[in-house]
Write a structure and sequence with these properties.
Length: about 110
Amino acid sequence: MLNVTDEIKKMKADRLVSITVAKEKGKNIVFYHLARNDSPEILEYSIKVPKNEQVKSLIDLFENAALYEAEATELFGVKFRGNELSGKRLFQGEGPPIPKTCAFKGAFRVTKDA
């Protein structure tokens, strides 16, 4: 399990702005976007997550991490240990994460075959 909480604590962020994920050569890169109350800058921390590896949830530091992590699980398959929502379908129903053959245009889901 990958533990990012110690590194995030060192950044002394006051709030979690978002968590995003990108795919790169069989790995997911998880980006944490954070902010401090005394600065207008957005802080970023990223970690490469090998397939089938889990990341420790940030819920203990930021409660709003729950939905961001659940979304990352649902869309990219990244698992977050300690997040009860990670692994539950919140947005797209049952089945695997969105297939690589899909692309999004506006509010519509479009497959490459279309």
